[in-house]
Amino acid sequence: MQPLAAVDIGCVICADKGCRVCKGSGWLEVLGCGMVHPKVFDNVAIDNEPFTGFVFGMEVERPAMLRYGIDDIRLFFENDLRFLEQF
């Protein structure tokens, strides 16, 4: 994406000092948006001259980590149904 914007909140786990949940930054990104890079269109065989794209989304993993006391975001992306079915 290019350019981008985000809404961050202070990490409530480490009180903004830096931990694994906030990747050491003291901040958690919860909303993000930006323009789609032209190469993304190229990679899916769409002519990037007449088209532009804007993306936005809400990250649900980090708020879920805070709510349920999960300390490793990778658990959400391993597709282990024993973990995922808890939510």
UniProtKB/TrEMBL annotation:
The keyword Aminoacyl-tRNA synthetase applies. InterPro entries: aa-tRNA-synth_II/BPL/LPL (IPR045864), Phenylalanyl-tRNA_Synthase (IPR002319). GO terms for biological process: translation; tRNA aminoacylation. Signal peptide: none annotated. Residues 3-87 form the Phenylalanyl-tRNA synthetase domain. Keywords: Aminoacyl-tRNA synthetase, ATP-binding, Ligase, Nucleotide-binding, Protein biosynthesis. GO terms for molecular function: aminoacyl-tRNA ligase activity; ATP binding; tRNA binding. This is tRNA synthetases class II core domain (F). The lineage of its organism: Bacteria, Pseudomonadati, Pseudomonadota, Gammaproteobacteria, Candidatus Kentrum.
